[in-house]
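Sequence, please.
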């Protein structure tokens, strides 16, 4: 019984440190068997210590820290590297074009288009067509997005802090 509780504590600590993580990442990082993972995550969900949100193919897990559904959705986006980078670039550079976003993320225009459609469908980004260009802006409060990033993804915050410092003022 002690070993099981120890695994559950480790899993919960990992989820708290990595909000929006999914089962395979927890399994890989903690080197636990999938059955053990599923059992403990199920128990954590049943005890309402952890909540989950399905996002695409993944079920993402969060320590239940009183986050609203909208905040969990923002954390979902922030946990995905390319989409997070695109959103943060848009916060720093409102009205960016698809070309600028592609250059920044170093991905093809079609990949950028795919990510931006997903972000738009999720309500994070608004697209405006003018002439032959598509301009994108972040919907919602950029300050809240930055605050969630800073609170729940401190390593990513450190990486982006210099770029976003002027936005916090």
């Amino acid at each position: 019984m002690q070993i099981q509780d120890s695994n559950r504590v480790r899993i919960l600590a990992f989820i708290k440190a990595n909000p929006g993580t999914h089962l395979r990442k927890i399994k890989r990082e903690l080197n636990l068997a999938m059955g053990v993972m599923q059992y403990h995550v199920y128990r954590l969900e049943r005890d309402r210590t952890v909540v989950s949100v399905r996002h695409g193919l993944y079920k993402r897990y969060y320590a239940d820290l009183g986050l609203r559904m909208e905040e969990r959705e923002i954390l979902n986006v922030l946990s995905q590297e390319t989409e997070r980078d695109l959103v943060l670039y848009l916060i720093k550079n409102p009205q960016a074009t698809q070309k600028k976003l592609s250059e920044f993320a170093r991905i093809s225009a079609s990949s950028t288009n795919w990510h931006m459609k997903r972000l738009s469908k999720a309500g994070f980004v608004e697209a405006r067509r003018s002439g032959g260009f598509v301009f994108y802006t972040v919907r919602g409060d950029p300050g809240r997005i930055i605050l969630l990033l800073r609170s729940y993804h401190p390593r990513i915050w450190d990486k982006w802090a210099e770029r976003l410092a002027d936005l916090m003022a």
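The CA atoms of residues 100 and 161 lie 21 Å apart.
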